[in-house]
Amino acid sequence: MERKAGVPKTLSTKLYDKILVPLDGSGMAEAALPYVRKLAAKLGSQFLLLSACAPGDPLEKPFQAYLDKTAHSLQDEGVDVTGLCVFGDVAASILDFAGEYEVGLILISTHGSTGTGYWPLGSIANKIIRNSRLPVLLIRPRELERRKQITLEKVLLPLDGSQFAEQIVPYALELAKDGGEILLLRVIEPVHVPGAPVYKRGTDYSLELKSGLEREAARYLRDVEATIAKAGFHASSTLLVGKPAETILEFAEERFVDLIAMSTHGYSGITKWAFGSVASKLIDASSLPLLVVRPPLPSVP
Questions:
Q1: Residue 145 parent element (H or E)
Q2: CB-neighbour burial class of residue 186 (10 A; exposed 0-12, middle 13-18, buried 19+)
Q3: Does residue 111 sit in helix, strand or coil?
Q4: Could you give the CA distance from residue 36 to residue 94 in angstroms, rounded to a whole number?
Q5: Domains plus CATH for the chain?
Q6: DSSP 8-state symbol, 76
Q7: Three-class secondary structure of residue 80 per DSSP
Q8: 85 and 53 Cβ atoms separated by less than 8 Å
Q9: pLDDT tens digit string along 63-113?
Q10: Do the beta carbons of residue 134 and residue 101 sit within 8 Å?
Q11: Which end of the chain is flanked by fewer CB atoms within 10 Å, N or C?
Q12: 3-class secondary-structure state, position 163
């Protein structure tokens, strides 16, 4: 990846010390900018506005001019921000740049095409999610249209009881700092017992199994809630039965959640959520911002 100079490589211990914001000149991509302002005030992060094009592309200078203008506007509001244009495949360049400069978060708007923009933004966002080892915060342009102000005070964490799912917790807490509320949600999928002759007490067995799962899940949520409370955050927990993705979306709407945060990829926990599938459904169906982290899968002995 070729790049322009001018970005320091130093990084503090903060999770989101540097936040990368891909832009292509479209209004859809710029839906991420209100969150730049919010996160700058909340976290004091450094922001890198990034566009990508092919070497010698006639749009290089217009892109750089656009990035400089956008950066200057944000700087006037007190945001620590730099605009850069890199060369190469868009998604690969974004990920390479993020790794090279120790970026802590990629903030990108998604859903649909970019209209007058230069990139197929939905496709770029999907490539980044599939390949990034960094947290990715997806912003929904249509959500901005119905909200009068940007808030990150109420964060929903869907958990399934596994260490894999819990990898999202520190990233979510960082976004919810300074008075935010954490909503823990455990969804147990309905228990079905085959109606074979061997299960003469099939109905009773289903109820016993369901009751056991609920007791274990409630105990787990209490433990996580207590751990988060010790870290200085207000947390509440809810246990529901249903299909994970649909139940998460319904709960988020009912509780007026500002952000959904979850791990993605792989299978995990006693309920065997297919986290990649659940996250994919949330990406497709939710109008809320979504923070996703793809932790490494546990090694097989």
A1: helix 141-146
A2: buried
A3: coil
A4: 17
A5: 18-146 (3.40.50.620), 154-293 (3.40.50.620)
A6: T
A7: strand
A8: yes
A9: 899 999 999 999 999 999 999 998 888 889 999 999 999 999 999 988 544
A10: no
A11: C
A12: helix
